[in-house]
C-alpha cells in the first residue's frame, strides 16, 4: 500500500527474505551489505528477530531463520488443509 509503509518493518521483512534465500547462515556484514543497511540498524533488527525466534545465530555468529518462521509455515499449511477438507462439505449445503 503506497504511503502506508513502516520503514523498520519493511527492513525486517527484507532481512527475513534474505535469510530465507540463504542456504547457509549470513553474517551481520553480509546482511548489511546485501540490503544497504547500516550495520547497527541491521544488528538491532536481527536482535529483535532473534528475541522472537524469527532469526537464530550459530556459533560462528551467522544468522539464519528461526524456529518461529517454521511454526508460521505449519500454521499456514494447516489452514489450507482444513479449507480443502471443509470446502466440499460447504459446497453440498
Fold blueprint:
Elements (H helix, E strand, L loop, with lengths): L6 H15 L6 H8 L3 H13 L3 E3 L5 E3 L1 H26 L1
Helix pairs in contact: 1-3, 2-3
Q: How would you characterize this protein structure?
A:
- Helix 1 packs across helix 3 and helix 2 packs across helix 3.
- The chain is mainly alpha-helical and 93 residues long.
- Strands 1-2 form a two-stranded antiparallel ribbon.
- A hairpin with a 5-residue loop joins strand 1 and strand 2.
- The protein has a domain of 61 residues: Winged helix-like DNA-binding domain superfamily/Winged helix DNA-binding domain (Arc Repressor Mutant, subunit A), CATH 1.10.10.
- It is elongated.
- The model has no long low-confidence stretch (mean pLDDT 89).
What keyword list fits this structure?
Arc Repressor Mutant, subunit A; single chain; about 90 residues; 2 strands
Uncertain residue segments? none
Give the ordered list of helices and strands.
HHHEEH
**Helical residue percent band:** 55-70%
**Looking at the structure, what is the overall shape?**
elongated
- What is the count of β-strands? 2
Strand content: 5-15%
Per CATH, the superfamily of the domain at 7-67 is: Winged helix-like DNA-binding domain superfamily/Winged helix DNA-binding domain
Strand order of the largest sheet: 1-2
CATH level-1 class of the domain at 7-67: Mainly Alpha
Task: Output the CATH topology of the domain at 7-67.
Answer: Arc Repressor Mutant, subunit A
Class by helix and strand content? mainly alpha
The N- and C-terminal alpha carbons lie at a distance of: 37 Å
* Main beta-sheet strand count, sense and barrel state: 2 strands, antiparallel
Radius of gyration: 17 Å
CATH-level-2 architecture of the domain at 7-67: Orthogonal Bundle
Count up the helices.
Answer: 4
Overall mean confidence score, pLDDT: 89
Amino acid at each position: 500500500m503506497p504511503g502506508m509503509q513502516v520503514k523498520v518493518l519493511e527492513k525486517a521483512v527484507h532481512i527475513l527474505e534474505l535469510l530465507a534465500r540463504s542456504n547457509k547462515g549470513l553474517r551481520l556484514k553480509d546482511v548489511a551489505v546485501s540490503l544497504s543497511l547500516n550495520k547497527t540498524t541491521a544488528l538491532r533488527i536481527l536482535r529483535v528477530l532473534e528475541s522472537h525466534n524469527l532469526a537464530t545465530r550459530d556459533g560462528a555468529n551467522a544468522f539464519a531463520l528461526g524456529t518461529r518462521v517454521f511454526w508460521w509455515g505449519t500454521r499456514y499449511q494447516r489452514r489450507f488443509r482444513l479449507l480443502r477438507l471443509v470446502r466440499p462439505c460447504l459446497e453440498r449445503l
